[in-house]
Amino acid sequence: MKTFNYHSAKDVKEASKLASSNSAFLAGGMTTLPSMKLGLASYKDIIDIKRIKKLSGIKVSGKTVTIGATTKHAEVANSKEVKKAIPSLAALAEGIGDPQVRNRGTIGGSIANNDPAADYPSACIALNATIHTNNRKIDAEKFFRGMFETSLKSSEIIEAIEFDIPQKSSYQKLPNPASRYAIVGVYVAKHKTGINVGVTGAKSCVYNDKDLSGALSNNFSSSAIDNVKVSTSGMNSDIHASAEYRANMVKVFAKKAVDAC
Amino acid sequence: MASLVGSRVERKEDKRFLTGKGRYTSDINIANQTYAVFIRSPHARAKIKKIDTSKALKSSGVVDILTGEHIAKDKIGGLIAGWAIRSEDGSEMKCPANPPLAKDSVNFVGDPVAVVFAETLDEAKSAAELVKVDYKVLKAVTNLNDAMKSDAIHDGIEKNLCYDWLLGDRQKVKEAFDKADKIIKLDIINNRLIPNAMEPRACVIDYNTASEEITCYTTSQNPHLSRLIMSAFGGVAPENKLRVVAPDVGGGFGSKINLYNEEIVCSWASKKIERPIKWVAERTESFLTDTHGRDHITHAELAVTNDGKFLGFKNETIANLGAYARVFGTVTPTYLFGPCATGVYIMPAAYSNVKAVYTNTAPVDAYRGAGRPEATYTIERIVDKAAMELGIDPIEIRMKNFPTEFPFKQTLVHQVDSGDYVAGLNKAKEMSDYNGFAARKKKSEAAGKLRGIGVTSYFEACGIAPSPVVMMLGCGVGLWESAEVRFNPTGQVTVYTGSHSHGQSHQTTFAQIAADELGVPIENIDVVHGDTDKGTFGMGTYGSRSLTVGGIAIVNACKKIVNKGKKIAAKMLEASPDDVEFKDGEFVVAKSNKKKTIGEVAFASYLPGVRDEVKSPLPEGEEPGLIESSFFDPANFSFPAGSHICEVEIDPDTGHVKLDKYTAVDDFGTIVNPLIVEGQVHGGLAQGIGQALCENAQYDESGQLITASYMDYTMPRADDLPDFNLGFTCTKATTNPLGVKGCGEAGTIAATPTVMNAVINALGGKEISLPATAEKVWNACKELKKSNAKAA
Ligand SMILES: Cc1cc2nc3c(=O)[nH]c(=O)nc-3n(C[C@H](O)[C@H](O)[C@H](O)COP(=O)(O)OP(=O)(O)OC[C@H]3O[C@@H](n4cnc5c(N)ncnc54)[C@H](O)[C@@H]3O)c2cc1C
């Protein structure tokens, strides 16, 4: 690991001011630190944002659940309020990595990183999330731009993620047997306003599968999906799963999710 | 006093390991130590044109940088193959030189070419990045199937062939096949595995400039052997100036048998730079450079009669040695594999033919089971295929071909002293509720799932012996084991063993047997191992040999202690030694109440006299003290055996295989500590199941290891495994006084075929290759559905 300057920011303003194109925020460190140790990334400045109280915590209103950016996966998984308002979201958090990762990794870090196989991005898509940063609000659909790419600017800090509480929802994941990230993860949510099917793991970036949500809008049952054809185009392919397998699993896990709603 | 052999004594090691008080190599620090970082080849095959260290040498904190040139100049020898194997045509095997630092060519990704020593680890790493190695990259040989048709990797080794070995009689096999009703054919790939010990390899070297002694702390399964090789072949230092210590070692599974490049280089360099050196592998280095396991391609044929009797067996295998032949690399696919390939069956004729080839991949060597898992996988898969093709129940076909009389002369080599295969399989059948399978299958089917049942009966040959035979077969050393038992004057006992524990719990098991022999409370017995400066020579731990060889040396040394004690006690009690009996720690004169405890005798042996009188408790000619040693060389291998049965449930929508039930019935002869043996079986099963369902080391065409981290190499996890249902039968080994057989590898040997037989059973006999990953199984399910639809 190369040497770097470590800063512990006392508030969002200070953190943002310290940021540059050669810095990273330190939330759970579960992505940043391993990549630095492996020599895949190096930064001049590491800006620790864990001390900023305002960034952590869970708030539930009538219609939404708002989770602070540095809230850990374990906190979401164990939150009584989340379990009550959006049980599928708590279950998603419970299924991330292992206990060590869940006790460190944060929701803000996860979506800022936008790993194509991460779980939370699918929740953001399915639950019409609004990403609150220190200077704007971004719709989830516009936030995730591509592989490891978001619409965040380098000095921009995610403060919280606000999820709509759906009528019904479920997240079903086919974990990579080695890493337990998602080979395919499908988040189905039924809102008054419509249905979303957030799919992660399958392509280079999370997406809302309009064919699946279209079929489900007419008939919210797993059999409605039977005749939808999920194309292999754009699907990832690696030693664990070919594009063909992934495409099929999107369907299989979408059905499982609908059945579990 | 109740016997401790057979009781569930809690491990003496637990307190240390469970409270984080273990002391591993990387916990050791020597004042003024430097840190080593190795520069490794990023290419699978290349010529080294030039190494430029000039910039790196100027980097901050650098003490020295050494390369293959330096090591060659100092005439330091390289790594060796421990077994010489001859080809069928009588020619000797061909092994390339394997210098500790490559000088002219590199042959796998991770092959070390240079080493940096610096004041801190960070400085060493930074400097390593500045070392410029100019390579001429050559086309790598990575495909095992094509290796014999590819360029020769090593000068003078044509077709990349180390040997083409035969065991058995081709003519007899041909005759048997001519008489067969049916020939069952099977092509299998026994996939490559990475051992993944929890503790990565490491070494800490302390060179004493005054005494010129080198102390090498290292992660080894056999410190004496490492010292011998480093001295005799490496020429690093004479044995008396070299101390090798393997302290707590966090798992080996065979990967820590070898003396590796890093230990030789750091030991040699410590003397050169006159500084202590510390090297600890990063996990990626472990993936790349620990010896790997398995990696065979096999074509097997079984000749059968219509009613399921076996007539003959052919085993044609290509075994991957990787880039170089290492300590057990050449014997694992021959004498550890070939003889066991006929399994637990009466097989009138058989042969095993193995071609071992070099490829540009990490060296392959013994990995838990070493050869016997590959053998068992071959025979147990083909026996199941035979059962299916003949329409015979898998248990019935096995029963039909079991020997029922022991000793059993197995077709190819072994004279199996004891066993009862019928009893083991019957017990497994009952414990697994084999007869209830059909009902459970129906239930699974109703839920849209496929259920399969798999059976394996195995025997294995472990505790390789006796030495004259193994040396006749080509082994460079004898495979006996030594022990020394020392009484202190005040009655505690220290047991020194040449065996090594890296998870096997010697401190408990060995103390139990010594406690029984000596009648001393187990609390007063310490077991010491892993240090060439302590106790006698030792051959180390692998091949399930610790108890059957090392444990017996302890028993024998204890018996010598008792013998001497008896003479001393007799003198003290003024009786004839013939009238003295030893029982429960006491020497008793027959038909009297005169007795001495062994503690009293030990005390007297060290303090042989009394005040005011010239009187010794020692008989004429007897020396003071109570210390005895023993070297035990068993008359034969030990032959554990058993039958395992498991059930899997497959989700055809995803291809996910759920291991639902697993029953293992093993015969390990006398069991010293059931708690520890069950632990060994559990761990072994997990590794065998890992190979069946998830573990798979993969190289790409250019020789890059694409499963070089836990993001891609799938280890089995606790939640992949069911509760194991364990049972035991017991036929005692006749080749040692305790009647014990090895238990360390059995689980791994039996589990892989058991699980695969179940998966293939669920798939209606459709073959799939190891490991049964979700996508492969999903594809098979799709094809099954298609062919079922056609049939309907
Ligand atoms: C072994 C292992 C297994 C894992 N398994 C899974 C899994 O199954 N599923 C899954 O989804 N994830 C998994 N992860 C990822 C993990 O869950 C973390 O969510 C992820 O690593 C990032 O979160 P973090 O808090 O650790 O971020 P950090 O590593 O601290 O930061 C990551 C990046 O996000 C940026 N960042 C962090 N916080 C903010 C913020 N508030 N505003 C703007 N930018 C920010 C940083 O600048 C940095 O670039 C796993 C990780 C490991 C190590």
Key attributes of the depicted protein:
heterodimer, A: 261 residues, alpha+beta, Uridine Diphospho-n-acetylenolpyruvylglucosamine Reductase, domain 3, Enolase-like, domain 1, 2 domains, five-stranded antiparallel sheet, 11 helices, 14 strands, B: 792 residues, Aldehyde Oxidoreductase, domain 3, Aldehyde Oxidoreductase, domain 4, seven-stranded mixed sheet, five-stranded mixed sheet, globular, binds flavin-adenine dinucleotide
What would you note in describing this structure?
The complex is a heterodimer of chains A (261) and B (792). Chain A has 2 domains: 5-164, Uridine Diphospho-n-acetylenolpyruvylglucosamine Reductase, domain 3 (2-Layer Sandwich); 168-260, Enolase-like, domain 1, CATH 3.30.390.50. Chain A is built from 11 helices and 14 strands. Chain A has helices at residues 12-18, 32-37, 73-78, 80-85, 87-94, 99-102, 107-113, 120-126, 140-143, 210-218, 243-260, and strands at 5-8, 23-26, 45-48, 58-60, 64-68, 130-133, 137-139, 144-146, 149-150, 158-164, 168-175, 182-191, 194-200, 207-208. In chain A, the strands form 4 sheets. Chain A has a 5-stranded antiparallel β-sheet. A 4-stranded antiparallel β-sheet of chain A has the order 11-12-13-14, sandwiched between helices. A 3-stranded parallel β-sheet of chain A has the order 1-3-2, with no helix packed on it. In chain A, a hairpin with a 6-residue loop joins strand 13 (194-200) and strand 14. The longest helix of chain A has 18 residues, at 243-260. The mean pLDDT of chain A is 96. Chain B is an alpha+beta fold and 792 residues long. Chain B folds into 4 domains: 14-140 and 196-289, Aldehyde Oxidoreductase, domain 3, CATH 3.90.1170.50; 141-194 and 292-402, Aldehyde oxidase/xanthine dehydrogenase, molybdopterin binding domain (Aldehyde Oxidoreductase, domain 4, 2-Layer Sandwich); 414-461 and 636-792, Aldehyde oxidase/xanthine dehydrogenase, molybdopterin binding domain (Aldehyde Oxidoreductase, domain 4, 2-Layer Sandwich); 480-632, Aldehyde oxidase/xanthine dehydrogenase, molybdopterin binding domain (Aldehyde Oxidoreductase, domain 4, 2-Layer Sandwich). In chain B, helix 9 (372-390) packs parallel to helix 18 (746-762), helix 14 packs parallel to helix 15 (546-572) and helix 15 packs across helix 16 (598-606). Chain B is globular and about 105 Å long. In chain B, 58% of the residues are buried. The mean pLDDT of chain B is 97. Classes of the chains: A alpha+beta (261), B alpha+beta (792). At the A-B interface, helix 11 of A face helix 19 of B. The complex binds flavin-adenine dinucleotide.
